[in-house]
Amino acid sequence: MTIIVSRERYGKSPMLAALLNFVLWGLGYVYVWSFGHIKSIFGLILIAMQIALWKFFAVEFNNPIFIIPSLFFAYDAYRDAKKLQT
Prior knowledge:
mainly alpha; 67% helix
């Protein structure tokens, strides 16, 4: 007897996940949210970390401290959402 498990297709947009992660670190991971996925929990931590940087250190959004990680996180969320679609 063979059991075939089909992967459910997620209706999450990779471009939206990338945009959300670029604007607020971790928000794209929360948007994609696959249960048991460590990046979803990590996304919540990233959101808190970025808000803390804004509040306590008054770092501007156009600072490289934000832009470089934002690009990385945007690409990573795009790739994760794309993987879940296949």
